[in-house]
């Protein structure tokens, strides 16, 4: 398995639509990512080679030993100390489980029941504790930007571990400093821009608003042993990719299609600078990777999906807790871009499964579009992470 970081420095605006409405997604779902890879594949190698690639994926659905797994794009934070790279915190969607909390954390949650509902993402360190069946700490200090749950080790990397002492020994001075720092940590923001278009029917201008996501670089400093340490947090997107059983030729072509994302981008409004990246960094999840252990094969407990999943009828019984995520919109194609695709509903990331299921590609174009142009696929193949023996009742 590989972890691919999509690095955004100055080009950090994204317009990722949820559907044909103006809603904005804060992550890039795997079906959007898959479509971008396929479009890049065709741009480089042509229609016939792309159809061969898609044909191989379809054939692999019936072979349990062969995989094509592509996660959605989630957020990471690169931590810089005094302008030098220090570490990275990776986040995943919060799974739909009951978290095992220590005594102080449970008491805090009982007093602030709405706080947990606002958490959308958890760090790899939290996942590691879930897998080991360890209790998790929860307080205002463990949640950054109101949405990201982190562990004590993450707080240490962020230079904020000293503030945990406030949970048992309140210190007004520390609380004031912590509040000031936490206000400066903002992973992203949603910007609304006012635009004007010309109505071609009535030949008059019409104002409209479109939204985009912007990753924000956060800067703060803390005093460590009488020295001022300057921190900078640089967020971005990453995704997980696993394939096995393809021909070497296909693998090389897929890798080239992924690298082309730097220039072609992801999502909408790319012609005006959205969805573009400055670099791509590929890391193999082997024993040299710090979090290799959380991706090792484990057969005990439950699983959470890291991608949108479209299960077959026979697989539905393995889904325990889930939310549905609807997809609708228009086809992006080299041949025709004005046709709607058929609406489809997936199991959203963060659902709970008692075993891994394969899912499948779904053909969403109308019969008329297929007969005139080509098939259009949405990726509903699952990629999963074990979360151990957790409470799901």
Structure characterization notes:
This protein has 393 residues and is α+β, with helices and mostly antiparallel strands. It has one domain. Helix content is 25%, strand content 33%. It has eleven helices and 21 strands. The protein has helices at 30-45, 47-60, 103-111, 113-118, 124-132, 152-157, 172-184, 248-259, 261-264, 292-295, 367-372; strands spanning 2-7, 13-14, 67-70, 74-81, 84-93, 121-123, 143-144, 148-149, 188-199, 204-215, 218-224, 227-244, 279-284, 302-305, 319-321, 324-330, 340-347, 352-353, 359-363, 377-381, 384-388. The strands form five sheets. Strands 1, 3, 4, 5, 6, 7, 8, 11, 12 and 13 form a ten-stranded mixed beta sheet that branches. A four-stranded antiparallel beta sheet has the order 15-18-14-21. A three-stranded antiparallel beta sheet has the order 2-10-9, with no helix packed on it. A hairpin with a 2-residue loop joins strand 11 (218-224) and strand 12. The longest helix has 16 residues, at 30-45. The protein is globular. The model has no long low-confidence stretch (mean pLDDT 86).
